[in-house]
Amino acid sequence: MSPIRFEAPLETIATSVIVRMPGEASRRLPSRGQVAVTGSVNGHAFDSVVEPDGMKGHWIRVGEELRKATGAAPGDVVDVCLEPVKDWPEPELPADFADALEAAPARIQEVWADITPMARWEWVRWVNATANPSTRQRRVEVSLSKMDHGKRRPCCFDLASCTDPTVSRSGKLRDEGAA
Question: What whole-number distance in Å separates Cα of residue 10 and Cα of residue 97?
Fold first, then answer.
């Protein structure tokens, strides 16, 4: 697959800075769900996972470190080049989930260590997909229970929906500036 190149503005949704992939660029990705990529923004390299927007498209979170490296701010148009990769980067574990995994019995830790980074992204995504603290705590507990019973992936959620509650509503990426 040849690199996917596009220009798009950085947007702010709540406290997140993102870039939405234009439809033509998004359609070139191999999945409507998350896709591991290596790429660059304004020539500055990054490895990440492109997120689904719940509307058959994708978006990319542009963190503070990458924004500083590029000198780009919300509203600026950036040049993005992406290539899907087979090897997924490790997900950043939320503290509550990381603590629970660390305290879990060895057999659960072994399942976690044995699953693929892609599967670990799915677990993290499922835990992070709620803003409700009690639902989130329950998801951490259910994740450990499922792994204890040999489950290697969470089930029963739409992999093509936007599951980050800070930028989505009803499974879809919100409009720019939405709170």
Answer: 30
In the chain, the domains with their CATH numbers are 4-84 (2.40.30.100), 95-148 (no CATH)
What pLDDT, on a 0 to 100 scale, did the predictor assign at position 179?
A: 58
Query: Cα(68)–Cα(38) distance, rounded to whole angstroms?
Result: 19
Report the 10 Å Cβ neighbour count for 161: 19
Residue 166 · residue 41 · CB < 8 Å? no
Task: Confirm if 108 and 101 have CB atoms less than 8 A apart.
Answer: yes
Q: For residue 14, what is the DSSP state?
A: T
Nearest to 46 by CA among 65, 27, 33: 65
pLDDT tier for residue 110 given thresholds of 50, 70 and 90: very high
Contact 13, 19 (CB under 8 A): no
Average pLDDT, the chain: 94
- Tell me the pLDDT tens digit for each residue of 15-63: 999 999 999 999 999 999 999 999 999 999 999 999 999 999 999 999 9
